[in-house]
Specification:
By secondary structure, the protein is α+β, with helices and mostly antiparallel strands. The chain has a single domain, classed as Butyryl-CoA Dehydrogenase, subunit A, domain 3. It has 4 helices and 5 strands; from the N terminus they run αββββααβα. A 5-stranded antiparallel beta sheet has the order 4-3-2-1-5. The longest helix is centred in the last third of the chain and has 33 residues, at 123-155. It is elongated, with a radius of gyration of 19 Å.
Length: 156
């Protein structure tokens, strides 16, 4: 299983998504009152003058990230049935792309912090974006294995 390249790509994606669970900032919002930071745990407010940090709003993104990492693990471990793994890898790629677009749209529209003046991308956003090509490479690896197996079946 580990000798297959798509397994390595799936592991890289799981590690990148798991890094988001450490609480790194995905977006930062500047406002008149201070600075708002958004991570998978929700929105935190930091007053710049007093240095006070408080949680404002929780987030369900934490649970989605955990479930998505488990889903990627399930797709990786279904290597004995290549048709099923190909379908799951395709779902992983499209859910990942849709999730990135949804997070970007929600943050840029200012739904999370209505009083935001500007938006800054954090390291968590870049970690999430870097995982998208690896999901595509994993999909291509599964497709290549599936095509090799089908060509061998034709020779029999």
């Amino acid at each position: 299983m580990i000798q297959r390249i798509q397994t390595v790509y799936f592991i890289i994606v799981m590690l990148l998504l798991s890094a988001l669970l450490s609480g790194v900032e995905i977006f930062g919002f500047t406002a008149n009152k201070g600075y708002f930071a958004y991570s998978v745990y929700g929105v935190q407010f930091a007053k710049t003058a007093q240095g006070k940090v408080e949680n404002i709003q929780g987030s369900v993104l934490f649970y989605f990230v955990i479930l998505f990492v488990l889903f990627i693990y399930y797709a990786m471990m279904s290597y004995k049935n290549l048709k099923k793994q190909f379908r799951l890898a395709r779902l992983v790629f499209w859910f990942y792309a849709a999730g990135l677009i949804a997070i970007l749209v929600v943050a840029s529209l200012g739904v999370l912090v209505p009083s935001a003046v500007g938006i800054q991308l954090g390291i968590g956003y870049y970690l999430a974006v870097v995982g998208l090509p690896f999901t595509y490479f994993a999909l291509k690896g599964v497709k290549k294995d599936k095509e090799i197996l089908e060509s061998l079946d034709r020779l029999r």
